[in-house]
């Protein structure tokens, strides 16, 4: 399943990020600008640790991105000091799913890591998708 916000428009905005074999140098991302409200986004939740906003190219009736307010380029860069923000991402996902009316039927949470994982914006983020049957996560290709 192609994951939207990390596609079309944002791919261009994030092309300035420098990637060296597993080392991502990302001091500024499109998400940093959304957190600071420097560019428009449909923010559905924000506190001192995380920000959540609607994806600009949704892949499901509900498609929200939940991001830590601190820049963490990939899941591989997570340390113990990030535990509070990452835990908050999960509790916010559950809260938003309830508010969106998708909690009971179910929803999917997705995080991608690096190129083979499909990560295009090097600021970790979790996709919350729901509002319809989402089908299998991956097709069986070996």
Automatic annotation (TrEMBL):
Q: Which residues form the HIT domain?
A: 30-139
Q: Which domain of life is it from?
A: Bacteria
Report the source organism: Buttiauxella gaviniae ATCC 51604
Its Gene Ontology molecular function terms? Answer: hydrolase activity; nucleotide binding
Q: Which residues form the active site?
A: 125
The record's family statement is: Belongs to the HINT family.
**Residues of the signal peptide:** none
Q: Which UniProt keywords apply?
A: Hydrolase, Nucleotide-binding
Q: Which Pfam families match?
A: HIT
- In chain numbering, where does the motif Histidine triad motif fall? 123-127
Q: How does it assemble?
A: Homodimer.
Among InterPro entries, the record links this protein to: Histidine_triad_CS, Histidine_triad_HIT, HIT-like, HIT-like_sf
NCBIfam families linked to this entry: PRK10687.1 (NF007965)
Asked if the Swiss-Prot or TrEMBL record annotates the protein with the keyword Phosphoprotein, the reply is no
State the name under which the record lists this protein. Answer: Purine nucleoside phosphoramidase
PROSITE patterns the record matches: HIT_1, HIT_2
